[in-house]
Amino acid sequence: MTQAVPLFSELRFEQDSVTGLWHLEANFTHWRGHGAWQREDQFSDGTLRLIGLLWALQDGDGLLLLEEPELSLNDSIVGHIPLVIDRVLRDRKKRLSARQVLISTHSEVLLAQVDAKAVLLIEPGSNGSTIRPPLEEELISMAHGLNPAEVLLPKTHPQALDQLGLFE
To answer: What CA–CA distance (Å, rounded) separates 43 from 47?
Structure first.
């Protein structure tokens, strides 16, 4: 967490003495020796999303669906999401049971980091969307240097998208 969130140093749960509600608090170091504590309502969307992602990976045993985990995150962090997921799942597998994670994304940065054999394409069509693995020619393109984002993302564009700006 400290690698992705500047000046982050500590995370804790604290119970509000008045309301009794629990709050997530983080300490951010700065020029004062003890830093500054902030509650979750003061975190950026990206910080909240990153904490939620790490928490979700650690908690539970069932299938985990991550819907666009890249939202509100810097692209340099997004590029590391597949590695973070892999490392957390490997560690969990040693201690607990294995867990399957499904990710839906439109992120070129995220998809460029994923093994093509682990990708399923949700392709829009006239009768709704279909889900399919990459076709043989798509796998060949990826084997020759293109990444899944370059080969597969253009196929997810809605039909007649070029007409979007032409309404009257």
So the answer is: 6
Alpha-carbon span 94 to 17, nearest angstrom: 39
Query: What letter would DSSP give residue 165?
Result: G
Which amino acid does the sequence have at 1? M
- Dihedral-angle region of residue 139 (phi above 0 means left; psi in -120 to 50 means alpha; beta otherwise): alpha
Rounded CA gap, 53 and 85, in Å? 9
Residue 48 in tokens? 């909240």
Q: What is the pLDDT of residues 77-98, one digit of tens each?
A: 999 999 989 988 888 777 667 7
Burial class (CB in 10 A: 0-12, 13-18, 19+), 25: middle
Summarize pLDDT for 33-71 with one digit per residue, the tens: 677 888 888 888 988 898 889 888 888 788 999 999 999
Closest-CA residue to 58 (of 96, 10, 11): 96
- Please tell me the distance from the alpha carbon of residue 132 to that of residue 120, in angstroms, as a whole number: 5
pLDDT of residue 4: 56
